[in-house]
Design brief:
By secondary structure, the protein is an all-alpha fold. It has helices at about 1-15, 25-45. The protein has one domain. It is elongated, with a radius of gyration of 13 Å.
Length: about 50
């Protein structure tokens, strides 16, 4: 699900579509999920932090 949401965001940005105000909370939630995923990955493999 997370990767699908990232793909949706990438598609919107790639096609120059505005991120409307109603989607800001979704964007913040998505950023937090990605940050959490990356933090867990860095804990698993500290070399990823480089």
């Amino acid at each position: 699900m997370l990767l699908e949401e990232l793909e949706d965001l990438r598609n919107e940005l790639a096609h120059a579509q505005d991120i409307i105000a109603a989607r800001w909370s979704w964007l913040v939630d998505l950023a937090e999920e990605v940050e959490s995923l990356l933090s867990r990955a860095e804990e698993f493999d500290p070399e990823m932090a480089r």
